[in-house]
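Annex B. Sample input.
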Amino acid sequence: MDRGTLHELLVAVKGGSCSVDEALDRLRRLPYEDIGFAKLDHHRGLRNGFPEVVLGEGKDAAQIVAIAERLRAAGGDVLVTRLGAEAAGALLAALPEFQYHATARVAWYRAPRVAATGRGPVLVVTAGTADVPVAEEAAISAEVMGNAVERLYDVGVAGIHRLLDGRDRLWNAAVLIVVAGMEGALPSVVGGLVDRPVIAVPTSVGYGTSLGGLAALLAMLNTCAAGVVVVNIDNGFGAAAAATRINQQRG
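Annex B, continued. Sample output.
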């Protein structure tokens, strides 16, 4: 349950369309629900602004379905990351209202909303096409979290004119998520062009001495461009969560 859902529930009780007993039944699962193999943190949306996110990696299909069912029943948004195709098939069979993006390995359900919130669009930028899976994890996660999201893909430093052609989009974004592997130079270039927060995401894309993304990570951490912060290798979700807190920060 997030702030918006709780507000709607309280308004419904006040207006008489929801009884006190019904409201208590919905609230009784706070702060968490023990389903045996997992304790679901239904209070997280109230504390952090977005409900608990399910990491599909390391869980079997039955566990993922059970967790998603209970989170969905709580009335908020549900996001499952690092979800393989087989487990995704089981999830969609059990909960057809979910959507799945195979490239990003992300499944999600969004409660109806009027419009995106925040100061402006979150722009997700990639150096190359090989970075798109991580970028889409970031983009979809940011969308589910209630942001307007734009994409600017395949604009790496090997052809810098491609990035410069999109400079108006860079300048119009509220927050930028810049995803790159190989030598990880793109966030430094973007950070030198904009006065907005830049969240750099190193990917594990690259040849031997990229060391599974470590070279890109270290390059991004050592950037000389001011205002660039870095998340872990391939952590598109983490970048989306950080971008959301910046974009939707309450005054």
